[in-house]
Amino acid sequence: MDIYLPIANLSVNALVIIGLGGIVGVLSGMFGVGGGFLTTPLLIFYGIPPTVAAASAATQVTGASVSGVFTHLSRKTVDIQMGWVMVVGGIIGALIGAGLFRLLQQLGQIDTVIAVLYVLMLGSIGSLMARESIQSLIAMRTGARPPARKRRHHPLVAALPMRWRFYRSGLYISPLAPLLLGVATGILTMLLGVGGGFIMVPAMLYLLGMTTQVVVGTSLFQILFVTMATTMVHSLTTKAVDLVLALLLLIGSVVGAQVGMRISMAARPEYLRIILAFIVLVIAIRMALGLGWRPDEIYTVQLQ
Q1: Domain around 214
Q2: Where is this chain primarily localised (predicted)?
């Protein structure tokens, strides 16, 4: 069933796009990640222009985050004060990212930059996840217990001035730290269409020293509002958001997430993490190879 994407300016099989969204949804439900960092590469592999893939993936992440935010708010596992500081930083980062996006578009390098950033990002994250997963599996087989992590913020965070009390997180730190973290996430969201949870969650744990009970909920809270702002900025500046594409992805991801949650309840988390690490590394390698492959058509014609 072919359907025309007005912004991408091509016809696609709607069932394939829904299927891609379903795959990302299954991974999201299984591994507890937003899945946005996998949506854009999969769309690029299918033939969607990288600019449209990144902008539309951010829109899909917005829709997929709504239910999660309401669930965590009802459980009181969201540090709203910390979340709003990160949202402000994310909006600033989205505006900075919009300027970078337009500049790279004018230079004709945006597609290459998106691919290179994904190779570096997925390669590093996949390697770290694989190492941690292997260590967990070895510890599980030998019966050894990993040392407990001491919760404290990074010394660089402690050196920042103007401290606030974040009661829900149990922290007394400078708001500049979560603000800067939000800025970095906003730039990534604008350029790559990712929610940023896979970077935000470890940073909140190991840099800010937040409690694990509020990390996921606060991350989703920030992601929801920042991806909303990113979608608006993309619509007004780059005009690369394809709502038809985003809607198809959202349909698939909502259904897939329910399937993934059921699978996650029946499988050991150690095996799930190493599977996710393998998937991330395979996508990174595929994108790296794509940067060096000679395309079938060296030249393209773009109508103005």
Answers
A1: 2-292
A2: membrane
